[in-house]
Amino acid sequence: MKTWFFYGVGLSTVLIGTGAAAHVNWFVQTDAEPLANVAVTDPIFLAWCVLAAGMVAFSVWLDGKLPTPRIVQSKLRHDFMEILRVFTGMSFLLTAYDGALVAPHKLAEGGLGLTLLILQAVIGILLIANRWIKVTAVLMLVLHAGVTWKFGFLPALEYAIVVGIAFFLLFNSFESEVWRDLLKPYSVDVLRIWTGISLVALAVGEKLAPSAMGQVFVAQYQWNFMEALGITIFDDRLFVLSAGMVEAVLGIVLILGTTVRLAVLALSIMMAISNIVFILQGNNEAALVEFIGHMPIIGVALLLLLLGYGQRLRITDLPPVRSLLGGVEEPVPVRPQ
């Protein structure tokens, strides 16, 4: 009985989270009017906050119970890094070809927009060609700074994953042994943390904020799977709230570095289902747009599935603590990396 209960909870979470995987703003009209979301003082919102906090706490507890996977071969790690580089380059180049910056809905308008568009295309070409990666990584940071200047801090924060990819490539491209030994161990953690920040920002900006377009998207594309299954309590407002909370929890878990592989696996399943749904609906154009936009995320997901939380910076890797009785610092047992 318990097994079926957990299966049901897991399936419901995945179905709800599928709405979190789709980038809402890519597919709704920019002049669309947002529908009223659940207020932060609403008991349903507060209940979801408690549930989300419980999910994060469970992730922290479970992280200490899971076995440590074996270290993968260097060649496999290198191959997955190459996939991230090529996928990011292709996404940048194809998005620039459509006249957009970083994401399909951020149109490159005006002189600054055109300059950033050319910069993005150059970055895409350099990444695909595997040339001047250190310079390219710095240019990615410049591009994101330009996007922040043009569209604002919060909209740009939704694509903080670009910053994470840039630092990951930069930390892994130093030829100096001193710099490489100093920074490379943190490359996966930087990638993971910035990806988590991106997910939390997307959850707020697209689904939880009063100006979010989540309900417009769900109504337009008929994505309320829970209501379609006969669970009428899940109206569009509750579905969008649930999707946003699931996305925020996944982002927080990535930032903390607990149960990273499980979180990324859940995110990957949601992204795959969201793309399949577009195809089943006959909306092949939307499916292609989503796949191109998700290519950097796919590359990051593959790396995090392989390498997990990295070698440093994990919330369950606590530093030495001072004993309450004797005042002597005692090391906290930590699982081997």
UniProtKB/TrEMBL annotation:
Transmembrane region positions? 45-62, 83-104, 110-130, 151-171, 238-256, 262-280, 287-309
Q: What is this protein's record name?
A: DoxX protein
Task: Give the source's domain of life in one word.
Answer: Bacteria
Q: Does the keyword Transmembrane helix apply?
A: yes
Keywords associated with the record: Membrane, Transmembrane, Transmembrane helix
